[in-house]
Amino acid sequence: MPLSLGLEPRFTFAQFKRINPIPPDTLWELVYARNAHAITVKRVPVALANLRAIFEASFQLANQVGFGAMTLRDLSKATGLSMGGLYGYLQSKDALAAMVEDLIRHIGGEIPRWFDEASLAPLVRLDSSLRAHVFMSELLQPWFYFVYMESRVLEADQRKVARAAEVDFQAAMARQIRQVREMGDREAFLLAAHLQSVIQDWYVKRWKYRAEKISVDEFANSLSAMVAAQLRVE
Question: HTH tetR-type domain location, by residue (predicted)?
Answer without folding.
Answer: 48-108
